[in-house]
C-alpha cells in the first residue's frame, strides 16, 4: 500500500498547510481536552495527504500523535505504522484507538520509545506481545490501560528485551507477577509500574525483587499481601517506592528493609494495614534524611508517639500520616521542616495544643489535623502561613475564639473548623477571604450576628455551613451577593420568623438546609420558584403552616424534608425526580395519592399525620423503595397484596388500623431488615417462613391479634436484635434454640459489622424511629433509655398465653438488655444461670406461674435498673446485694408481691429456720439439693450406726443374749406369717 494511501486511513484533526517533510512529526493535543473537531457537525476531517510520500514517511524518526482523536480503520491502530522502519520514537498515548494492538509494530527494529498507553476509551487489548522481542533497541515501553489479562507469561517476554529501562503496565488487568524467571536480563531496568492491576498474591513472590537497578517501583492499587521480602533492602538505587493500596499487614522489620535505601525520595505505604512503632520506621529512614521529599503513611495502624527525629528530614515536602494510631503531642521538631508544603496528621489520637511554632512552616499550602484530641486555642501564628490554601482543624476540642489573623490568609480556598468548642463571634475579617470556596464553622459554640460584611469579598464561595451554633443571620433586603452558592447549611441559625428576602439570591443552589431556623407562617409566593432547580432541600423543624402547592411541576428536587412543621392540606402528587421525601410529624390529611410517578423514590416517610383511607396498590410501582414509614396515621384495610418491592429494607406501618394476615409478599423479600407492624388489627398465625428473612434485625408486631405458636424459625434469625411480639394471642411454648440468635449472644457487637453501612445509612435520618431517646415498657413501669434503637437488644413476649418453662439456653443471650415475659402462663423455675446475662437492664417475669427460688445469681446483674417478679409462685429468701439493693428504692416490695412463699427484705415477712443466704454471685454457695452430698452422708451414717451396734454386742453379754433372742422370735413370727399366707393363697387358687 502506498504510504500516502495508508496515511489517509487516519481520520482526525487536519495538519497545518505549512507542514513540511521532516524527521519529526508532532500533532500533540492539549491534555486538557481532546481535539474532537466537532465544530462542523461532528464528522472527523480527513488527514491532509500533502506530503505523505514514501520518502517522507520513510524518513520519519519521531512520531508523536498523543492526546488526539485520530482514528484508524475501524478505530484500530493502523497496521501501516509497522512499515515506518526508521521510527525511533512513537507516541500514540491518550488516543481513541480500540481493538487489538497490531503485531506489525514488531517491524520497527530501530524503535527506542513506544507509548501506547492511556487510551481515551481504554478499549485496546493484546493476546500476544512476543513481537516486543524483535525490538532490540527498545528502552521505553508504556502500555498503560491496554488489557493484557490473557497473557500469562508477560514477564518472560519482557525479560527477552534487555535494553528496556522503563516499563509502564499500569491498569493492564494483570492478575499475577509471581512468575519465576530462570535468569534475569533486565539489568538496565530503572522504572517499573505495575499499579492498578489485579495482582492478588504474596508480595514476596514477585519476580522483580532481584532487579537491583530499579530506581522507581510502583505496585499501588493491587491486592498484594504478606510480608515485604528481605531483598528489598538490596535495591539501594530506589528513589521512588509506591506500595500503597494493598493488603500488606505483615510489615516485618521495616527498619532493616529501609536502612540501606539512601537515595529514597518518595515512600508511599498508605492504605495498607501496616502496624508497628512509628519511631522504628523513622529510624529506618535515617539513611536518607536530606533526600526524602515525600512520606505517605496514611490509612495504616502505625502507633506510638511521633518522634522528634522527624525534624531531621529537612527536604520533606509532603508528610501524610492520616488515620493511624499515633498518640502524644505534636513534636517540636516538626516545625523545622521549613520546606513542607503538605502536612496531614488527621484521624489519630494526638493531644495538646496546636503549637505556636507552626508559624515557621511558611511554605505550607495544605494543613490538615482533624479528628484528634487537640485542645487549647487556635494560634494566631497561623496567620503567617500566607500560602495556605486548605486548613482543617475540625473534630477536635479546640476552644476560644477564632483569631482574626486566620482571616488574613487570603490564599485559603477551604477552611474547616467544625466540630470543636469554639466560642465568640465570627470575625468580620471573614470577608477578606476572596479565594474561599468552602467554609465550615458548624457544630461549635459560636454566637453573634452574621452580616453582609462577613460576605463582602467572598466571590468564589461555593459551599458554607454555619449549622449547630447560636448565630443569627441579618442582612439588608437589598443586599446582593458576589458569590453563587452550590451548598449551604444554616441549620439552627436564626433567620426567621419571616422568610428573609436574601434567600431569593440562592436561586440555582444545589443543596440548602434551613431546618430549625425559627421560620414561621406560610411559604412566600417566590419560594418554590426560587428553589425549582435545587436538588436537596431541608426545611424541617420549623413552625411553617399552610399547605403545599397541589402540583410541583417543573421542580427538580430529589430529596425534600418538611418534617416537624405545621403543614396542612393533602399530600401533593410526588415529584418525578424525587428519591427521598419526609413530610412526617405535620397535619397533612386526606388519602395517600394514588398516582405514583416517582419511579426513583427510595425513601418515603409520612408518619404522624392525619392520613386516612387505605394504602393504594399503586405504591407497588415504587420498585426502588427501600424505606417506607406510614406509621401513626389512620390507615385501614389490608396491606396491598401486590406489595412486592424486592429492595425494601425497612417497613414501618405501626399505629394504624390495618387488618388482614401477616403480609405474604414479604416471603420473597430477603433484604428486609426492619419490620414494624405493631398496634394494628392484624390476625392469624405467623408464617414459618419468617425464619427465611435472613437479614431481619428488628421485628415489632405487638398489639395485634396474632395467634397460635410462635414459629421456631424465628430463632434462626442470626441478626435479630429486637423482637417484640407482646400483646397478642400467641400460645404454646417459648421457642427453644434461642442460642441461635447470634447477635444477642455477643456483647458489644458492632452494628455496622452486622448490617453494613447501606442498610441504615438513611434509616438513621428518621428522628421518630431512631431518636436519641427510646422507651421500653415493663408492667407498671416505663423505662426511658438514652440509647438509640439501633443499639438496643430486646425480647418482649409479654401479654400472651405462652405456657411451659423458660428455655434454659436463654441465658446464652449475654447481649440482651431487656427481657419481658410477663403476663403469660409460664411455669417451672427461673433459669439458675440468669446471672450470666450481664447486659440485662430490665427483667419482667411477673404474672406467670413460675415456682422455685429466685436464683442468687440475679445479684450479679450490675446493669439492672428494673426488676419485676410479682404474682408468681416463687418461694424462699429474696436475693440481695449489689444492684438488687438499689432497685425501686421508693417501694422495692412491689417487685416481689403476689408470691406468698417469698420472705426476707424488702418484704416484711421474715424467713424462719435456716433461711437461705442469697448474697453473692454465680460462685456463691447454693441451698439446693446436692445428690453427691446426700449419698455420702447416708453411707457414712450407716457405717457409723453399724459400728455402734457391733461394739455394744461385743462388750455387753446380756445385750448380746437379748439381741439374738429378739432376732429368733422375730424370725419365727415372720416364718409363720409367710407359711399361713402362702397356704391360703394356694387354696384360693385351687378353688378357682
TrEMBL record:
Domain of life from the UniProt record: Eukaryota
Gene Ontology CC: plasma membrane
Membrane topology recorded in Swiss-Prot or TrEMBL: Single-pass type I membrane protein
Protein keywords: Brassinosteroid signaling pathway, Cell membrane, Glycoprotein, Leucine-rich repeat, Membrane, Repeat, Signal, Transmembrane, Transmembrane helix
UniProt-listed InterPro entries: Leu-rich_rpt (IPR001611), Leu-rich_rpt_typical-subtyp (IPR003591), LRR_dom_sf (IPR032675), LRR_R13L4/SHOC2-like (IPR055414), RLP23-like (IPR046956)
Transmembrane segments: 934-955
Family the UniProt entry places it in: Belongs to the RLP family.
Main location: membrane
A Gene Ontology BP annotation from the UniProt entry: brassinosteroid mediated signaling pathway
Protein name: Disease resistance R13L4/SHOC-2-like LRR domain-containing protein
Compartments, record wording: Cell membrane
Region (Disordered): 1-21
Residue intervals of the Disease resistance R13L4/SHOC-2-like LRR domain: 311-515
Amino acid at each position: 500500500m502506498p504510504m500516502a494511501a495508508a496515511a489517509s486511513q487516519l481520520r482526525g484533526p487536519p495538519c497545518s498547510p505549512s507542514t513540511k517533510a521532516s524527521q519529526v512529526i508532532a500533532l500533540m493535543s492539549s491534555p486538557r481536552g481532546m481535539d474532537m473537531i466537532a465544530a462542523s457537525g461532528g464528522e472527523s476531517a480527513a488527514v491532509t495527504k500533502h506530503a505523505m510520500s514514501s520518502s517522507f514517511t520513510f524518513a520519519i524518526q519521531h512520531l508523536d500523535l498523543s492526546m488526539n482523536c485520530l482514528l484508524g480503520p475501524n478505530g484500530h491502530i493502523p497496521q501501516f505504522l509497522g512499515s515506518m522502519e526508521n521510527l525511533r520514537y512513537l507516541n500514540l498515548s491518550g488516543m481513541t484507538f480500540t481493538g487489538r494492538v497490531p503485531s506489525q509494530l514488531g517491524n520497527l527494529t530501530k524503535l527506542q520509545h513506544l507509548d501506547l498507553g492511556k487510551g481515551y476509551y481504554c478499549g485496546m487489548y493484546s493476546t500476544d506481545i512476543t513481537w516486543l522481542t524483535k525490538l532490540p533497541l527498545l528502552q521505553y515501553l508504556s502500555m498503560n490501560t491496554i488489557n493484557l489479562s490473557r497473557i500469562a507469561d508477560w514477564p518472560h517476554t519482557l525479560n527477552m528485551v534487555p535494553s528496556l529501562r522503563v516499563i509502564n503496565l499500569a491498569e493492564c488487568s494483570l492478575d499475577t507477577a509471581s512468575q519465576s524467571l530462570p535468569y534475569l536480563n533486565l539489568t538496565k531496568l530503572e522504572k517499573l509500574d505495575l499499579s492498578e492491576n489485579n495482582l492478588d498474591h504474596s508480595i514476596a513472590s514477585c519476580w522483580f525483587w532481584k532487579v537491583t537497578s530499579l530506581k522507581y517501583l510502583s505496585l499501588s492499587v493491587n491486592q498484594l499481601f504478606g510480608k515485604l521480602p528481605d531483598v528489598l533492602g538490596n535495591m539501594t538505587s530506589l528513589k521512588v517506592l509506591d506500595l500503597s493500596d494493598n493488603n500488606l499487614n505483615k510489615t516485618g522489620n521495616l527498619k532493616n528493609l529501609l536502612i540501606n535505601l539512601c537515595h529514597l525520595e518518595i515512600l508511599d505505604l498508605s492504605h495498607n494495614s501496616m502496624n508497628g512503632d512509628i519511631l522504628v520506621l523513622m529510624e529506618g529512614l535515617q539513611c536518607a534524611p536530606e533526600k526524602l521529599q515525600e512520606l505517605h503513611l496514611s490509612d495504616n495502624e502505625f502507633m506510638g508517639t511521633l518522634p522528634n527525629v522527624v525534624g531531621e528530614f529537612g527536604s520533606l515536602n509532603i508528610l501524610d500520616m492520616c488515620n493511624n494510631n499515633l498518640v502524644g503531642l505534636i513534636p517540636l521538631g516538626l516545625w523545622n521542616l521549613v520546606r513542607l508544603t503538605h502536612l496531614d496528621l488527621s484521624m489519630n489520637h494526638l493531644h495538646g495544643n496546636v503549637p505556636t511554632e507552626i508559624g515557621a512552616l511558611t511554605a505550607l499550602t495544605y494543613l490538615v489535623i482533624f479528628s484528634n484530641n487537640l485542645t487549647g486555642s487556635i494560634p494566631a501564628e497561623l496567620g503567617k502561613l500566607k500560602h495556605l490554601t486548605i486548613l482543617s482543624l475540625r473534630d477536635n476540642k479546640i476552644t476560644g475564639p477564632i483569631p482574626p489573623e486566620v482571616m488574613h490568609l487570603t490564599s485559603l480556598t477551604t477552611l474547616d473548623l467544625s466540630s470543636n468548642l469554639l466560642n465568640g463571634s465570627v470575625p468580620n475579617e471573614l470577608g477578606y477571604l476572596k479565594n474561599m470556596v468552602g467554609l465550615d464553622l458548624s457544630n461549635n459554640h459560636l454566637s453573634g450576628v452574621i452580616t453582609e460584611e462577613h460576605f463582602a469579598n467572598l466571590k468564589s464561595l461555593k459551599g458554607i455551613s454555619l449549622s449547630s451554633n447560636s448565630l443569627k443571620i441579618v442582612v439588608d433586603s437589598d443586599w446582593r451577593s458576589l458569590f453563587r452558592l452550590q451548598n449551604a447549611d444554616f441549620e439552627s441559625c436564626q433567620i426567621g420568623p419571616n422568610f428573609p428576602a436574601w434567600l431569593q439570591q440562592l436561586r440555582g443552589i444545589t443543596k440548602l438546609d434551613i431546618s430549625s431556623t425559627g421560620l414561621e407562617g406560610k411559604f412566600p409566593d417566590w419560594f418554590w420558584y426560587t428553589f425549582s432547580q435545587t436538588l436537596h432541600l431541608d426545611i424541617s423543624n420549623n413552625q411553617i403552616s399552610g399547605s403545599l402547592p397541589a402540583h410541583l411541576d417543573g421542580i427538580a428536587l430529589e430529596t425534600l424534608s418538611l418534617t416537624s412543621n405545621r403543614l396542612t392540606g393533602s399530600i401533593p402528587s410526588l415529584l418525578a425526580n424525587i428519591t427521598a421525601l419526609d413530610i412526617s410529624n405535620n397535619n397533612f390529611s386526606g388519602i395517600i395519592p394514588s398516582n405514583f410517578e416517582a419511579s426513583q423514590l427510595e425513601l418515603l416517610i409520612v408518619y404522624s399525620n392525619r392520613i386516612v383511607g387505605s394504602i393504594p396498590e399503586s405504591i407497588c410501582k415504587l420498585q426502588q423503595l427501600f424505606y417506607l414509614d406510614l406509621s401513626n396515621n389512620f390507615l385501614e384495610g389490608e396491606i396491598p397484596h401486590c406489595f412486592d418491592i424486592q429492595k425494601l429494607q425497612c417497613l414501618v406501618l405501626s399505629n394504624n388500623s390495618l387488618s388482614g394476615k401477616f403480609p405474604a409478599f414479604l416471603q420473597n423479600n430477603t433484604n428486609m431488615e426492619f419490620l414494624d407492624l405493631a398496634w394494628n388489627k392484624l390476625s392469624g398465625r405467623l408464617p414459618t417462613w419468617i425464619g427465611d428473612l435472613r437479614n431481619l434485625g428488628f421485628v415489632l408486631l405487638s398489639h395485634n391479634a396474632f395467634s397460635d405458636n410462635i414459629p421456631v424459625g424465628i430463632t434462626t434469625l442470626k441478626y435479630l436484635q429486637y423482637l417484640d411480639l407482646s400483646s397478642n394471642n400467641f400460645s404454646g411454648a417459648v421457642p427453644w434454640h434461642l442460642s441461635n440468635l447470634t447477635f444477642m449472644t455477643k456483647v458489644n457487637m458492632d452494628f455496622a459489622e452486622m448490617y453494613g453501612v447501606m442498610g441504615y445509612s438513611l434509616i438513621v435520618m428518621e428522628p421518630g424511629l431512631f431518636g436519641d431517646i427510646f422507651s421500653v415498657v415493663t408492667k407498671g413501669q416505663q423505662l426511658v433509655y438514652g440509647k438509640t434503637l439501633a443499639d438496643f437488644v430486646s425480647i418482649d413476649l409479654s401479654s400472651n398465653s405462652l405456657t411451659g418453662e423458660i428455655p434454659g439456653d436463654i441465658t446464652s443471650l449475654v447481649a440482651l438488655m431487656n427481657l419481658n415475659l410477663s403476663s403469660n402462663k409460664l411455669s417451672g423455675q427461673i433459669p439458675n444461670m440468669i446471672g450470666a446475662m450481664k447486659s440485662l437492664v430490665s427483667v419482667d417475669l411477673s404474672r406467670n406461674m413460675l415456682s422455685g427460688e429466685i436464683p442468687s445469681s440475679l445479684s450479679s446483674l450490675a446493669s439492672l435498673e428494673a426488676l419485676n417478679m410479682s404474682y408468681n409462685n416463687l418461694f424462699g429468701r429474696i436475693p440481695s446485694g449489689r444492684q438488687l439493693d438499689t432497685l425501686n428504692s421508693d417501694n422495692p416490695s412491689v417487685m416481689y408481691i403476689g408470691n406468698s412463699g417469698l420472705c426476707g427484705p424488702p418484704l416484711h415477712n421474715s424467713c424462719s429456720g435456716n433461711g437461705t443466704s442469697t448474697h453473692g454471685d454465680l460462685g456463691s454457695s447454693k441451698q439446693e439439693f446436692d445428690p453427691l452430698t446426700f449419698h455420702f452422708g447416708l453411707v457414712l451414717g450407716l457405717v457409723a450406726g453399724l459400728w455402734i451396734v457391733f461394739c455394744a454386742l461385743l462388750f455387753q453379754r446380756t445385750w448380746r443374749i437379748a439381741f439374738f433372742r429378739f432376732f429368733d422370735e422375730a424370725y419365727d413370727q415372720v416364718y409363720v406369717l409367710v407359711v399361713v399366707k402362702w397356704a391360703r393363697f394356694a387354696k384360693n387358687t385351687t378353688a378357682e
